[in-house]
Amino acid sequence: MLNTHIIGASGYTGAELAKMVHLHPHLKLAGLYVSANSLDANKPISELHGQLKGVVDLPLQPLCSPQDVAQAGDIVLLATAHEVSHDLAPIFLVRGCQVFDLSGAFRVQGDTFYTQYYGFEHQFPTWLEKAVYGLAEWNHDAIASAQLVAVPGCYPTASQLALKPLLESELLDTQQWPVINAVSGVSGAGRKASMTNSFCEVSLQAYGIFSHRHQPEIATHLGQQVIFTPHLGNFKRGILATITAKLVDGVTTEQVEAAMQAAYAADGDKHAVRLLGQQAAKLQSVVGTCFCDIGWQIQDRHIILTSAIDNLLKGASSQAMQCINIRNGFPQLTALV
Amino acid sequence: MLNTHIIGASGYTGAELAKMVHLHPHLKLAGLYVSANSLDANKPISELHGQLKGVVDLPLQPLCSPQDVAQAGDIVLLATAHEVSHDLAPIFLVRGCQVFDLSGAFRVQGDTFYTQYYGFEHQFPTWLEKAVYGLAEWNHDAIASAQLVAVPGCYPTASQLALKPLLESELLDTQQWPVINAVSGVSGAGRKASMTNSFCEVSLQAYGIFSHRHQPEIATHLGQQVIFTPHLGNFKRGILATITAKLVDGVTTEQVEAAMQAAYAADGDKHAVRLLGQQAAKLQSVVGTCFCDIGWQIQDRHIILTSAIDNLLKGASSQAMQCINIRNGFPQLTALV
Amino acid sequence: MLNTHIIGASGYTGAELAKMVHLHPHLKLAGLYVSANSLDANKPISELHGQLKGVVDLPLQPLCSPQDVAQAGDIVLLATAHEVSHDLAPIFLVRGCQVFDLSGAFRVQGDTFYTQYYGFEHQFPTWLEKAVYGLAEWNHDAIASAQLVAVPGCYPTASQLALKPLLESELLDTQQWPVINAVSGVSGAGRKASMTNSFCEVSLQAYGIFSHRHQPEIATHLGQQVIFTPHLGNFKRGILATITAKLVDGVTTEQVEAAMQAAYAADGDKHAVRLLGQQAAKLQSVVGTCFCDIGWQIQDRHIILTSAIDNLLKGASSQAMQCINIRNGFPQLTALV
Amino acid sequence: MLNTHIIGASGYTGAELAKMVHLHPHLKLAGLYVSANSLDANKPISELHGQLKGVVDLPLQPLCSPQDVAQAGDIVLLATAHEVSHDLAPIFLVRGCQVFDLSGAFRVQGDTFYTQYYGFEHQFPTWLEKAVYGLAEWNHDAIASAQLVAVPGCYPTASQLALKPLLESELLDTQQWPVINAVSGVSGAGRKASMTNSFCEVSLQAYGIFSHRHQPEIATHLGQQVIFTPHLGNFKRGILATITAKLVDGVTTEQVEAAMQAAYAADGDKHAVRLLGQQAAKLQSVVGTCFCDIGWQIQDRHIILTSAIDNLLKGASSQAMQCINIRNGFPQLTALV
């Protein structure tokens, strides 16, 4: 049993992680932590997340000494704000913990990226370089030997899983940038009081047009520029990405199908992608599951892909768990289905 | 044209009032105000409430001198917090304005009521005594000559409109307290950021059990104790009250029907109640309207009443407008249908 | 007062029309009709649409003799199925009625269009040719003298109002087809029982990919090919279209702004478009209103437009009413704001 | 491994059962069935319930010969319509299968009950008499030796679990009937196309006032008359029951607490009830779980209880699974948490 600590356990992602670790046959849920001055400190996690009552009732401990936590831990999950992850990760890493960071703090290399998109200067270029991007279906081998895994963002997961097979097979006309329109449930904004997330204010709308930090994350890891427009939807969980792209002249439906099959062969243990063929992905089928559903249709030289995930699961916690499983030699979907 | 000012115009009720006053053929929307230190000060109201864009674009002025506003106004609508209404109303009243207060500050007389239920001591017992409770269908004549109208709360409106005809006709067995279960949309909590109102946290649940301030408001104005249990529902607008009560032995369906008809005779101009008979009230029929729908069924000595309103309209702003219309001799539903 | 008949009045659009005609100072709601064998025949419309109770309680008459209705009517609104409109419209037209058809039966000319997209062969090429496309902001003069107005579809209204100013000003690089992603509320599918519209089955998903009949409607009336992907959203009313397009090299933000202002000058009586500038359109601001909100942002040579309407109002009934107003010389937004 | 068949597997409850049986370490999902003439026959269950794709993809077989199914089965779950369960159960029972019926066909004894409330005459009085009511927390021993278990209805489960401890401890003043107001998600009406369940028609409303068949089910098994008013809510899953009752004179909070604790001692394996004390139950905490959350508050002689379940789980499928576990000696919450 590997001792597993969750830092930032009061949020929606933290609650999902706590349940998964609890259910995992080879992990021991060693501790849940919140920042030392959090109002939620010392409350049982089930007081914040009532669905956990009777299942996981551990207290949310104030994180006073990350060093002590590091000593007692094999695995550390960081479900913390970007700057917090940035500051904490090295403390755990130098003490030998495996670190799975769900924030954006170690996802993208590049001199100006963090200053421009996250508003802070990155202090740990060496760790940033060593970090493995945890897109489970595509970085399996690197994850298997990583000490620091940067779990991808929710939109980037849905977007890349759909586009990568086509790019890898060189089926896309890369001159015309793919257009990614995606709608996320409100939980994507985290567990907090704000006018934007207030029940009466939420209604479908685009935000972060041309400026969302997930655009460069997607473009960097795809190696392809994209136009990415996120939207807030009036539902709690889930992301649906609808992607319009141009195919290389002469590409056939069969070639697309073959590229998808090659990427996500029907081997249940290897991944969490379900191919829908001509059917369109829908939120309801993926919410509450670890899966990414992908459908596509072609007309002339255009392809429209639909890709759906649960933003808190495949877009965050269950992908982190896939990475833990890969890293430690467990079947990839352990504790997930 | 009567100059009409709305104080506390940034909230959901304020926005509804602004639109109604704008549409009213005999009222002039003279000014919109927020507290002097509000972050929304000087913004056009349509920046906060996008549906008003192009319809009402007046700025939300900081309320620096209520005295000046009073001089320039015939009618003042207070859509302010209870304590704010308590403090402001006399300033407008002594300068001769008609004041329609949508808060709870002048609704209930009694030595300990405000200390116990609102957490402040009432400083204006004379005005409190002069205030007329603005339940439009029941206090018509008093409203017609009032200077200060305390517009009823949302739950009390839905509850009393259903129960009053039966109590007035002495059809209820008053030994057994009526049980009022009511569910309100989230807008009832006002326009503000809070965890409770956060989109992902809202789900059907009771609150304020045995302790909600609307219980004594209902009991006082009915002259009958009741058990009142409010609930938060996962919708933006509307209140549905389901009321279970005991009838006096021998009361017939015909007597109940007659009491309802007597109270709300089919005279469209006189009131905003629609009788549904055996049909149950449903939210969808009243949301966006000024109406209270009431249905009822009887079995043996029990009666179950359902009563539905839009909490922001009949439960607040449209009832205030009914009171303005009554007070100034306009047809009662002017600007409302 | 013009006698106005609504055919197909049992649906959501019919109910909206009934209320508007009722409120209109120059129209008389002469009759509501459903098909002769409808189960709703002879019910008051307010039995189906509870919000109308006490406002419009006219019965839904079985349409036995359209000829008789035509004799008694000045204006006929067809809120009927496509084939029904196709069959009925000429009966009213030859008897001199003004006909405003909300179906797709007279929207697009072309030999194979109706066979391919609507599954029937058009029998009235002359009327089809005479029909004026009722995009109120763009076809004002033709509507003003039309006898038959084909009120545009909901998606086409949202899409064209955003794109037309750019195309007319030749700011778009038309080589790269604009990508229109739009999400509609469930009411777009009409008032009927179906698994697809069942409460528990609805969740965000694309449909009609590369095959929706609104694609050729948009392309025809824009004179520009587009990629159009409609989605079903988990809400009752509203459409949000997010449109990604490429600008001609060198086009500036100022030019786009100027094109928008030129198209929709700030003259409240002339149209129902509200320009948001850099702000993104959101559903909540338009639902329940007659307005189309349009926002846009530019980066390099890409523009992203967001366009929001109430699908039942600007996407159907209120646009029909704009056309009636234009046709009969009333201020364009009469009965609408 | 016990061979387990699910009859009526196309519905929401059937899908939940399929997943549970699939996850159960001692059950083998032997077959899924729909009626022989169902349009869904031979489709994989995951075509109807997309969340099951890759998890349970078995076909929905047409049930041509229940006799053959009985031969090959140890356990049969009937997620069928009441009449269908009534007809099928004996076929499986006489062949020695354990039958867990989720319909109402075997829940209540009494000469006129089925004629009055279900519209058919019961043909199997002997089996009706032998049937054990599967309220897992209260009928443990009888369930452990039953061949036919009638799994309780959703409303009766939420209602009885809250009231039974008080009645058993004789703390309630039984002269005054408890008032049960309950709101159910739309999935309670099953997976089918209907106007009532249509997305645009759903809004909070009471139904079945004084006439719902769950009223006598509750009253019979409680041994106490109750007033029960069900409501349809605008959400997919969950039931919240708010119950108002009168206590015997002098009953203390401590006595109520003791009665609850005695009924649901903190022994995780024995039951699926979570006691919340003074806190009110909320839907969000139970949806997706097998738990019933119960809270209560007392004032003078009144008690208000709130009780929340997932209608498809504790109100149907997970309670059936509790019964299977009890009957076969497995830990009671196997496959449930």
From TrEMBL, chains A, B, C, D:
Pathway: Amino-acid biosynthesis; L-arginine biosynthesis; N(2)-acetyl-L-ornithine from L-glutamate: step 3/4. GO terms for biological process: L-arginine biosynthetic process. It comes from the Bacteria. Residues 3-146 form the Semialdehyde dehydrogenase NAD-binding domain. InterPro entries: AGPR, AGPR_AS, AGPR_dimerisation_dom, AGPR_type-1, NAD(P)-bd_dom_sf, Semialdehyde_DH_NAD-bd. Keywords: Amino-acid biosynthesis, Arginine biosynthesis, Cytoplasm, NADP, Oxidoreductase. Catalyzes the NADPH-dependent reduction of N-acetyl-5-glutamyl phosphate to yield N-acetyl-L-glutamate 5-semialdehyde. This is N-acetyl-gamma-glutamyl-phosphate reductase.
